[in-house]
């Protein structure tokens, strides 16, 4: 049961959210640029030049977002001293069902029935929003340990003739465990910057399939149940918002861009990542990512990139890390933390 066992007072130290572990997974099917549908008329050189992507993973028949979420959750809990958590959060844009939320079912499959569980929806910014939600629960004293899982299966949303989105997106899941810690402890999450602009809600969207579709019969067709993105406008918004948000969260933490050891941004497009790094004056060697191997995995992209960086020993304890993301809504967000001893 989710509750605050120890009411906070002005004299009691506020719990500090600390990152304990990270893990990720992708489905086994690898789709290279040469494997993309022939009628898209692409080539490996064309896709790499436009996106920086060489391969992506697509879930096969019978594999859902919930399946990937469960695999990532099991992997991250296996890295922890205990499987016990007070709260399970799932962030996704491709839930297994419109109702109910995915988190309660995931908690039950993990043997955590009875704990609080709910979903967070912020498209590709979902992981940062979820991280802020989990951190707030810990800082308020409501939860001591939180499991946050980000998972998306975008291959189920791409229209059969949508080359522009089809070459970009892959499927995957990433998970982290946060716990209550102390100020200055490795893994400490130092701050967030979050924002949105609903005036741009139609720039990244799946128009049909929801309550609006049912409320206005005849307005939406089958094609409206597929993913749509206005690429040029999204590019401009993504670069500007992630840059601004990164600078804001660095300022709140008392850091400058020179203090940052590692940057892990939402793996949207290699050109976006390069532009954000350039605007922040952060050298390429500090920017970590795996977009070339997995593509854009939606909300899962940041934890997947973190898990990959750990596996490749590209990130080390004590390093100052900046996370930043942009997604539909429009939404954006950034976070800063000190990397823990995580494997």
Automatic annotation (TrEMBL):
Location within or outside the cell: Cytoplasm
Active-site residue numbers: 124, 266, 296
EC class: transferase
GO molecular-function term, one example from the UniProt record: beta-ketoacyl-acyl-carrier-protein synthase III activity
Annotated keywords: Acyltransferase, Cytoplasm, Fatty acid biosynthesis, Fatty acid metabolism, Lipid biosynthesis, Lipid metabolism, Multifunctional enzyme, Transferase
Annotated spans, ACP-binding: 267-271
Reactions this protein catalyses: malonyl-[ACP] + acetyl-CoA + H(+) = 3-oxobutanoyl-[ACP] + CO2 + CoA
EC id: 2.3.1.180
Residues covered by the Beta-ketoacyl-[acyl-carrier-protein] synthase III C-terminal domain: 250-339
Any single biological process term in GO: secondary metabolite biosynthetic process
GO CC list: cytoplasm
Pathway linked to the protein: Lipid metabolism; fatty acid biosynthesis
Sequence ranges assigned to domain Beta-ketoacyl-[acyl-carrier-protein] synthase III N-terminal in this UniProt record: 118-198
Subunit structure: Homodimer.
Family membership noted in the UniProt record: Belongs to the thiolase-like superfamily. FabH family.
Function of the protein: Catalyzes the condensation reaction of fatty acid synthesis by the addition to an acyl acceptor of two carbons from malonyl-ACP. Catalyzes the first condensation reaction which initiates fatty acid synthesis and may therefore play a role in governing the total rate of fatty acid production. Possesses both acetoacetyl-ACP synthase and acetyl transacylase activities. Its substrate specificity determines the biosynthesis of branched-chain and/or straight-chain of fatty acids.
Domain notes: The last Arg residue of the ACP-binding site is essential for the weak association between ACP/AcpP and FabH.
PANTHER family documented for this protein: 3-OXOACYL-[ACYL-CARRIER-PROTEIN] SYNTHASE 3, BETA-KETOACYL-[ACYL-CARRIER-PROTEIN] SYNTHASE III
Protein name: Beta-ketoacyl-[acyl-carrier-protein] synthase III
Organism of derivation: Lentzea albidocapillata
Phylogenetic placement of the source organism: Bacteria, Bacillati, Actinomycetota, Actinomycetes, Pseudonocardiales
């Amino acid at each position: 049961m989710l509750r605050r066992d120890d009411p906070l007072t002005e004299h009691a130290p506020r719990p500090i959210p600390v990152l304990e572990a990270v893990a990720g997974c992708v489905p086994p099917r690898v789709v290279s640029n040469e494997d993309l549908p022939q009628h898209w008329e692409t080539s490996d050189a064309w896709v790499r030049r436009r996106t920086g992507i060489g391969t992506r993973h697509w879930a096969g028949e019978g594999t859902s977002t919930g399946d990937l979420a469960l695999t990532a959750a099991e992997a991250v809990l296996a890295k922890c001293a205990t499987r016990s958590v007070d709260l399970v959060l799932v962030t996704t844009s491709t839930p297994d069902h419109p109702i109910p939320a995915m988190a309660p079912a995931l908690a039950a499959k993990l043997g955590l029935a009875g704990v609080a569980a709910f979903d967070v929806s912020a498209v590709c910014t979902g992981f940062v929003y979820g991280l802020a939600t989990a951190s707030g629960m810990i800082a308020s004293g409501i939860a001591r340990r939180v499991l946050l899982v980000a998972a998306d299966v975008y291959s189920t949303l791409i229209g059969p003739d949508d080359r522009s989105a089809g070459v970009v997106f892959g499927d995957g899941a990433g998970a982290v465990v946060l716990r209550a810690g102390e100020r200055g402890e490795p893994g400490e999450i130092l701050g967030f910057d979050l924002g949105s602009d609903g005036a741009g809600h139609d720039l990244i969207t799946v128009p049909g399939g929801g309550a609006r579709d049912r409320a206005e019969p005849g307005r939406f067709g089958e094609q409206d149940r597929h993913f749509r993105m206005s690429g040029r406008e999204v590019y401009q918004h993504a670069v500007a918002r992630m840059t601004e948000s990164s600078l804001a969260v660095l300022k709140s933490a008392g850091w400058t861009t020179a203090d940052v050891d590692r940057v892990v941004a939402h793996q949207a497009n290699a050109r976006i990542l390069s532009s954000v790094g350039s605007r922040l004056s952060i050298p390429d060697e500090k920017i970590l990512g795996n977009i070339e191997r997995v593509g854009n995995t939606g909300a899962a992209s940041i934890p997947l990139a973190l898990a990959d960086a750990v596996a490749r020993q590209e990130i080390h304890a004590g390093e100052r890390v900046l996370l930043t993301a942009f997604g539909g809504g429009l939404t954006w967000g950034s976070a800063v933390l000190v990397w823990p001893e995580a494997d």
